[in-house]
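JOB MANIFEST
job_type = single_chain_structure
chain_count = 1
residues = 505
[input]
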Amino acid sequence: MRSRRWRYLCWAVPGWAAIVAAAASGPRRPDLDAADRARVEAIVRPAADFAAVEPFETLPAGAATVRGKPLTRDVFSFPSANLDFAARQRFAIGNGLFRKDWVSAPASTQASDGLGPLFNARACQGCHLKDGRGVVPADGEPAVSLFLRLSVPPRSSEERRLLAERRVAVIAEPTYGTQLQNFAVPGLAAEGQLRIDWEAVPIALAGGETVTLRRPAYRITDLGYGPMREDVMVSPRIAPPMIGLGLIEAIDEGDILARAGRRDDPDGIVGKPSRMRDPENGRIVLGRFGWKGGQPDVRHQAAHAFSGDMGLSSPPAADHWGDCTARQAACRVLPHGAQPAFGPHEVSGELLDFVAFYSTHLAVPERRDADVPRVLAGKRLFYEARCAQCHVPKYVTRRDAADPAHRFQLIWPYSDFLLHDMGEGLADGRPEGDAGPRDWRTPPLWGVGLATTVEPRATFLHDGRARSVLEAILWHGGEAQAARDRVVAMTPAQRADLIRFVESL
């Protein structure tokens, strides 16, 4: 049942009759009737008044927003506020599985063995620290939550066909697969070790300020299985935060696609969707998750993390040896952890569903300081710099979303979930599916101001190179170059207000 506050909010918007007429003739969301479509169009319109907070703006996840919790390292680890008792029990089971350390097979703990043989982490929590971001390894420290994706350009007509038909997103490096695993079970060599060299890049800002960025250069040492192909392409990826994922799944696909392929944007913003083939049913689906939009939903994202990061099989990724290739013969003859009593996979479909449920119900915390005048001034600057063209503030989720807790919620993720050319400075030189060598999916901003509360070493962007929100902005190029340049041209006080706003999200 719709609340009186919701009805008041929608019908009090000026120009309501024109919005209803536009909704009636415009794109239709099949989950909404005409009245609801008009209400939704009204509530998701861009802000025009920056003197006060918008209605419900302090509840970024709608009814799922967690409120009144202390701002400690656990602030990203609470269940959605609108879960019932049974759902909270399921969340708790998923939490235990998410935190569980896996061991190599064979082991006495038969429900927890099968790790590897090659791996990057022993638990989901090992990468998503306290359900937040991963960290860049310090000098001499092994990489865990930052790793390298690997691939090579196609050389045969068959490889080009597989890419064109979306049977694969990349062509794996023949020996090392699609990901560098820097750990291995006893008796087996790890694939190699990630090393990072840093270059200082000073950037002058208006008002006499200077910010020194750090540009990473990646190299691989201690290769365990011989040389890689000479044309290998590498892409660093740091683990992203886990909050709000189920609500992202519940956004109507049409609301995302409506922003793609712009032709007349004054800054040259285009945006394109990422598409892939669902490995279980063969359908072409929209990618919403991953730094290049490589996964359609949380369940598939979890399955591929189990496989690539921990070497564990599940129904969508059934190879017991994970990313071990045919050329790594010693890896593929080691025992796996699938047990007849638990089914054909090391992570059964039931266990995968528990982890996916947990991952889709990690709550977004309520906004802080949203009504502070300097934060409101920063919000105006965010819009004036046109940051909101890609970091789209708000959506209303589908009324018929698969999970009742995600249905018909006004949410504020600050993303369009599209791929954008981000310029040469952020380019990894590695295409993946529909994402080109300079393309990245717009990451959501909700919770960004609490990143270092959850993990004091947390950093930003796909490889963690940015040590602050301002550094992340200054790396923007390509379609975001004009917005970035407007931030550079602001006065120091204006930039401080802009950052206050972003960090309040």
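[summary]
The longest helix spans residues 85-99.
Residues 1-26 have pLDDT under 50 and may be disordered.
exit_status = 0
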